[in-house]
Amino acid sequence: MKELEQAEDDFAQQALVEAVENQIADGHPREAGLVIMDLIGQGVDREEALGKMADVLAAHIAVTLKDEKSFDVNAYARDLLQLAAADSAE
Predict the structure, then answer these.
(1) What is the three-class DSSP state of 27?
(2) What is the DSSP secondary structure assignment for residue 42, as one 8-state letter?
(3) Does residue 1 carry a pLDDT above 80?
(4) Of 39, 57, 35, which Cα lies nearest the Cα of 48?
(5) How far is CA 11 from the centre of its chain?
(6) d(CA 79, CA 63)
(7) Hey, where are the domains in the chain?
(8) CB–CB of 36/24 below 8 Å?
(9) Mean pLDDT across 18-34
(10) In whole numbers, what is the pLDDT of the chain averaged over residues?
């Protein structure tokens, strides 16, 4: 049972990373491209940076589902920028 849960978690994480990669490629939100470049410039490995960005996306999706409201791209973009700022402070 635990293996199935891990496989589901891995699949979900990969789908979120793919979504972030698509955002970067599409330039929407534009902050996604800025943040990946900033994180890599700070010395963060690309895969780790994508994982951190995927975590931010997951949190916003969870809020959207919990509150039954539309996805707030502006709040998501703001939190992506905060992610880059937090990493530079470390």
Answers:
(1) coil
(2) T
(3) no
(4) 39
(5) 15
(6) 13
(7) 2-89
(8) yes
(9) 97
(10) 93
Residues 4-20 pLDDT 10s: 788 788 889 999 999 99
Extract the tokens encoding 28: 């929407």
Name the residue among 48, 42, 53 with its Cα closest to residue 82: 53
Q: How far apart are CA 12 and CA 15, in angstroms?
A: 5
Taking 90 as the threshold, does the pLDDT of residue 42 lie above it?
A: yes
Does this model's pTM top 0.85? My answer is yes
pLDDT classification of 31: cutoffs 50, 70, 90: very high
Please give the structure tokens belonging to residue 50: 């994508």
Question: By the 8 A CB rule, do 42 and 90 touch?
Answer: no
Alpha-carbon gap, residue 9 to 71, rounded angstroms: 22
Q: Which helix (H) or strand (E) holds 61?
A: helix 46-67
* Tally of residues, the chain: 90
The span from the CA of 48 to the CA of 54, in Å, is 10
